[in-house]
Amino acid sequence: MAQTGGAPAPERIGGADFDGLGGEEKVPIIVTKAPTKRSTAKLVQHVSNFALTRAEMLRVTPAHRVLWGVGSAVRGGAYSQDAYIYSTPATHISQFWTHSWHGGPYCKIAVLHLVCSGLAALACGTLAVAVSLVPLDRMGASTLWSLLVGLLVSSLALLTWRPSVKVFFDKLCIAQHDAKLQVEGVVNVGACVKNSESMLLCWDSTFFGRLWCVVEVAAFLKTHHDPAALRIRPTTWGPTSIVLFLTFWAWTGMSQITGSVIIGDIEWEPFSLALVFSAANAVNHMLSMSFIAHFWRSHLRDLDMACTQLSDFSFKRDVSCHCCAIGHIHPVTGRPMACDHETIRECLCIWFGSVEEFDVIMRDRMAGVFQKSFCRHPLPYHWIVGATTPTLWVAMCNVFQSMAVGTFPFLLLFANLAYWLAVFPVLLHLELKLAHLLRRRRRFFWQEIVVNIALAFAGSIGFAIYLIIEAAGIVMLGDPMKGAAATSLLWAVVAVYVWCT
């Protein structure tokens, strides 16, 4: 239950830095008087007590309102004057969304769509593939159409799904059309954080350098002690996962075309078959993974920078704010502005004892979270499984084709599920690990291109090695299904070792 604490509404004060709390464009606040020590002390007391000025200031909005129009609230600059009407008063907040307005909006939109609607989109796409198999088979159409149906339905679901979770998002939950309401909304942010069940931190390289982003994290660390309640999602995960999904979708289509057009009904020797599929995969892999490698290496360098910054974090040195950048002179009225940096520094002293103690907590807790979450596994297992879902779709097509002739191939089903849940996650994990080793930015652009192509080529070689091992299993066991199943079992053991140790 939100606690109002009987706190009066704050006075209209001059230090209004809304960076990260309502839009990337600063909304001019008309200041009626210069800040005084009394008004600043009153603000510090209010923010540090995590008290609401009014119960109505604890507001939420459905997540789909933030994502509506492909994230128009995130990318639209100064949002509609009526955006505030899409938020409503609440007694608690399911999830507080914190982010930096100085980061790229489209990466942020992509990761928010995946976090909120990714699972639903994959489920809808998989269901669409299953439903489409029978009518397409009766029409004599290729299973490629089922893969296309899955892509279209999952894409549509990702963009139009309406997640109903109630979240705090600054652009909608802090008034943009009324200066007084905007100030009141900003000073209630600490209370909103306190009354949130969890926090979704959309991280990019600018996050820990922005004052209000750090304030929100500080308030959460002070009021919440469950590490699982803080969910950090790098914004680069969004576009990376989407491109990976499209890459594997293209690969499944390529494998189906290779099997029907090139292979056909000809009896191929296992090792020759492995080389044919390796070559077909290399074409698709080299085209897409070179781009992914470039993007991912940049992401890893940003993570290194964040880990370095957090391991030696200093609030005084590392955190900047808008009011300091403009010399504490209001751009509209020309009057002096209170320094938000000094105001928040006093709040940190009340919360943690001193700014130096807060620095220690950031170094210990946040740096540890980054090291644990992002250095061991470049991309979480369930994100990789989601990105490789098209391999499940092609498995469904293969099993359906076998069932259509009156057999149920258990070994084929096992092998195809292993491709999805074990083989591709391991290969992709190793490729991303290799990208981590080669993440350093090269001096010349052509060197960057060579490194990215080399990483894509290494991934193609890894898949070729997997196919050759499978061919060896087929030759040794004398049966394609038994050989594929035995190889898949081996990779399942490797996957358990990679992800659980």
Helix/strand class: mainly alpha
* Low-confidence runs of at least 5 consecutive residues: 1-18, 23-33
Spatial sequence of strands, sheet with the most strands: 2-1-4-3-5-6
- What string gives the helices and strands in order? HEHEEHHEHHHEHEHHHHHHHHHHH
Mean pLDDT, nearest integer?
85
Outline: elongated
* Secondary structure: number of strands: 6
Radius of gyration: 27 Å
Count of the separate structural domains: 1
- Distance N to C terminus: 41 Å
Q: Tell me the major beta sheet.
A: 6 strands, mixed
Count of helices? 19
**Percentage of residues in DSSP E strands:** 5-15%
**What is the helix content?**
55-70%
Provide a descriptive summary of the structure in words.
The chain crosses the membrane at residues 109-131, 143-161, 241-263, 275-296, 381-401, 407-428, 449-469, 481-500. The protein has 501 residues and is mainly alpha-helical. The chain has one domain. It is built from 19 helices and 6 strands. The protein has helices spanning 37-48, 63-75, 105-138, 144-160, 170-173, 179-187, 189-194, 211-223, 237-263, 270-311, 315-318, 322-325, 340-352, 355-375, 381-387, 389-404, 410-437, 445-477, 480-500, and strands spanning 59-62, 88-89, 93-99, 166-168, 196-203, 230-234. A 6-stranded mixed sheet has the order 2-1-4-3-5-6.
